[in-house]
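Morning!

This is the sequence you dropped in the shared folder:
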Amino acid sequence: MGKDTKGFFRRKWFLRIISLILALFLFMYVNGSKSGFLRQNTRNNNQSSALMSNKSVTLRMPLDVTIDNNKYIVSGYPQYVKVKVTGPSALVTTTSNTQNFKVYADLSDLTPGKHRVKLKMSGLNSELTSKIEPQYINVNIQPRKTITMKVTIRLSTRDLDNGYKLGRPHSDIQTVQVTGSRDEVNKVNRIIAFVAIPHDAKDNIARQVTLQAIDRNGQTLNVVISPTTTNVSIPISAGSQSSSSSDSSSSSSEESEETKSSSRTSSRNDSSDSSSETSQSSSSISNEDSSSSSRNQ
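The structure's back. Tokens below.
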């Protein structure tokens, strides 16, 4: 049996089958490795392509204005502008997330008046290209001016529906600083603290009110008020109608008491007069009886 088994493994066809099987396993292993390598390379190439491809994004950026703020006031420019950034995808994404650049208008060399200024940019990566929208802005440069003005309290009504009366309003701030362009500050007519009064108010009113600068026509002006708010207190008391009603009630009560007292006095006088008349009548009758008996005698 042992010799037959050894002879079986030594036969040519058996060795050929084993060799074929091993060759197939080796072929499948090599192809699998190549496919995995190719897939990995393809993935890496795709990622590299994605990182290196161009991308565009539009950002909303604040506009900085360069000027001596202690001397001048600038108006007319937009607070934000749009910037279109184009370049490698990775850089564009990073720039969009960080926004580590700025858009500005340099007005430091300009004189007071109206100007058309080109916007500039700084801090943007050199590999990126950009476009600002709008590219030019119109500005109005005016000398800065500050004045001091009194605060005026304005009430929405002076009359209440329930007979109560408003007292004199009081503000904890008497004067404020008004700052702005010279032309705008010169238009300021009053600084008002407007207080809305409910028509059915009965208790004292306390409000924190935002101050407003208005011109002669009542239009609000674009100036800076410091401080911006004030605390207003308004006393409320019972009005003249309530007092008149109270006085009327008191007078009616007094008149009623006087009437009752007069009635009692009159009644006593009437009783006294009646008693007197009765007494006089009795006396008269006695006298007549006496006279009659004297004549009879």
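Headline: Residues 241-297 have pLDDT under 50 and may be disordered.

More detail when I'm at my desk.
O.
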